[in-house]
Fold this protein.
Amino acid sequence: MELVYTYLGITILSAFILYFAYLTVRGKDLVYSSVSLALTASMVSLMVAFMGFHLVAIVQLLVYVGAAVMFIIVSVSLLGAKETTVRNEYLGLTAGILTLAVLALYLNRFYTAFTFAKVPSTAVISDLLLSRYMGVLVLIIVALAATIIEAISLAKR
Amino acid sequence: MTAITLESIGYTITITGLLLISIGVYGFAATRNLIRMLLSLEIVFNGVFLVILEVITSAPVYATILGVILVSVVSAEVAVVVAIIAAYYRKTGVLDSESAENVEGGV
């Protein structure tokens, strides 16, 4: 019975994710589209939590939604730019459908049975990041620091 | 009535991810507005994120570390791209990707 409720929750979540994703690419105003992106990403992180990856869900919510997407929203609001460009619906639809077809065929080749992830505790993951995956952690820190400096220098030009 | 299995949950997540990717590609190809293109790419990222995590649920530790790396890298990419778009908009006053070809000396 619990599986039925999980399935129902994931299906409803999927519908919301797709609806907000559609609003992101087709919304009339850029600010509202950015807000829709924040809602899409929040619901994706909820779905990731449903799958068992609680730490990843929290990181996505804090770092991606809380920092990156909020940065987009604030920047778009401050720029005050209006969308005036012409849309090429035919090209977009062709590209979207082709991508879906190719990915569906490709993914079918290495699809494995789904199981809810049994992730070890956050302490174990942190321990792994500070020992076995120290290089990865250093890479992330350096990349984020370089990005902040780059973004500040670009914004000040 | 068809019984709900773990497989059907997996398929729902994968299909959602694939649809997100195709919606993002549609948005990217249909517009020339730089901010809209960035937003569409972020939708693609969310779709890829879902599909990758769903495919490697059998290796949860690797999936967790990969997920953290992905989120960090994409957040960094967003900061740089938004800064470039803002500088470009201040210089030209438009957000059209086609007019970017005519800008001399970069942003």
Summary: Chain A touches chain B through 89 residues (CB under 8 Å). Residues 147 and 153 of chain A are 10 Å apart (CA to CA).
